[in-house]
Amino acid sequence: MPAFPDAARAAVRDTQLRRNLAHATTTIRTKRAAAVGELADWAELRETAKQIKDHTIEHLGHYLRLLEEQVTARGGTVHWARDAAEANQVVTDLIKATGETEVVKVKSMATQEIGLNEALDAAGIHAYETDLAELIVQLGGDRPSHILVPAIHRNRAEIREIFRREMPGAPDDLTDDPARLAEAARTHLRERFLAAKVAVSGANFAVAETGSLVVVESEGNGRMCLTLPETLISVMGIEKVLPSWRDLEVFLQLLPRSSTAERMNPYTSIWSGATEGQTFHLVLVDNGRVATRDDEVGRQALRCIRCSACLNVCPVYQRAGGHAYGSPYPGPIGAILSPQLRGTGSPVDDSLPYASTLCGACFEACPVAIDIPEVLVHLRSRAVHARTERAAMRFAAWTLRSPTRLAFGQRLAGTAGRVLGRRGFIGRLPGPLARWTDTRDAPVPPTESFRDWWSRR
């Protein structure tokens, strides 16, 4: 992926994309505000969730060991993966051991993060997405652009065309009526559910004290995946663990209201270890989370419960869309999570901390009080080109400490302004300074400084 500014520049020229995003995010944002307003103790719940997450992250090793003990005691098998390659290999080997070449999948951010579908495909295993939005993305050969609504960048007419073109058995008279689209998807998936012997899921939460995993969803497709197949493989980031059921109670009030604007999700599936007639495997994935935990400022990103509230209030996301972030985690949370999990060795990860206006709307919306602007500023200080910025700030400080140097600098700027700003603004500064003028119109410095005016008068 290119750097965020380049990807965003192309995205904002897509007027249909901007209309789709504006309509969807405005609708979700309005409904969420109403759902949150019903709880008089929302601020207290938010603070409690923050404290639970911070405590768990601080004692992560203890709760993960407890989770493993409880899952194992209930007939499940726990696997540990240091990175995406290990996680993909574990899942691939488990599926191959069953002799199956097809699996059904519950919507999972963790499997998107590690690129599981692509790894399975390379091994000759096809994964069928069963979440409606994920199905749209998969059939369209597309990429998700939103945490909660992966196909938010598509409108109903576009979805109809994708179904008619790519979905086997789609009716010829299919319209863009939402009920007809949902029914076509349901008919298509029913055969997959009945035939599948293996399912892959993520997890919204895991309860350490009982080894229980939790998946919340709105369509029922997840429930079908979790219960029908003979083998269930759940892939989970290690930060999803919670200490107890009382802690889970807090998050089951926060997550539905912040994501789907519902009081509770229509389907909340909870299972502890292997259920009767089913083999269960839990794959716990690090993939940069331990390194993120070691950063005192950046670690708060691990509180994230993937609700997408920050995306729906972000003015940058609303205009650029999710694809510009080059990550399964778009929007404000992606701008702080992806560079920490993946490092800043690529143009897109190096640029993501700058994909924000620092307006603070994301912090206000976050149900676990992640101070995203604080982390963005922190990560900017670690970016490759931050060295140039620090040098510029040191030079500015040196100049401002001396009235003589400041006066000389002002006269020099006035002279340069007359040369470079023939049209009333500076079109482009030379060298590294071009990074400033490439993104804004810089006014021409006055020919006479206030200091000189004062002396003359």
Automatic annotation (TrEMBL):
<feature type="domain" description="Lactate utilization protein B C-terminal">
    <location>
        <begin position="383"/>
        <end position="457"/>
    </location>
</feature>
<dbReference type="InterPro" id="IPR024569">
    <property type="entry name" value="LutB_C"/>
</dbReference>
<dbReference type="Pfam" id="PF13183">
    <property type="entry name" value="Fer4_8"/>
</dbReference>
<dbReference type="Pfam" id="PF02589">
    <property type="entry name" value="LUD_dom"/>
</dbReference>
<dbReference type="InterPro" id="IPR003741">
    <property type="entry name" value="LUD_dom"/>
</dbReference>
<keyword id="KW-0408">Iron</keyword>
<keyword id="KW-0004">4Fe-4S</keyword>
<dbReference type="InterPro" id="IPR017896">
    <property type="entry name" value="4Fe4S_Fe-S-bd"/>
</dbReference>
<keyword id="KW-0479">Metal-binding</keyword>
<feature type="domain" description="LUD">
    <location>
        <begin position="66"/>
        <end position="276"/>
    </location>
</feature>
<dbReference type="Pfam" id="PF11870">
    <property type="entry name" value="LutB_C"/>
</dbReference>
<dbReference type="InterPro" id="IPR017900">
    <property type="entry name" value="4Fe4S_Fe_S_CS"/>
</dbReference>
<keyword id="KW-0411">Iron-sulfur</keyword>
<feature type="domain" description="4Fe-4S ferredoxin-type">
    <location>
        <begin position="301"/>
        <end position="370"/>
    </location>
</feature>
<dbReference type="InterPro" id="IPR024185">
    <property type="entry name" value="FTHF_cligase-like_sf"/>
</dbReference>
<keyword id="KW-0813">Transport</keyword>
<keyword id="KW-0677">Repeat</keyword>
<dbReference type="InterPro" id="IPR004452">
    <property type="entry name" value="LutB/LldF"/>
</dbReference>
<keyword id="KW-0249">Electron transport</keyword>
<protein>
    <submittedName>
        <fullName>LutB/LldF family L-lactate oxidation iron-sulfur protein</fullName>
    </submittedName>
</protein>
<dbReference type="InterPro" id="IPR037171">
    <property type="entry name" value="NagB/RpiA_transferase-like"/>
</dbReference>
<dbReference type="InterPro" id="IPR009051">
    <property type="entry name" value="Helical_ferredxn"/>
</dbReference>
<feature type="region of interest" description="Disordered">
    <location>
        <begin position="437"/>
        <end position="457"/>
    </location>
</feature>
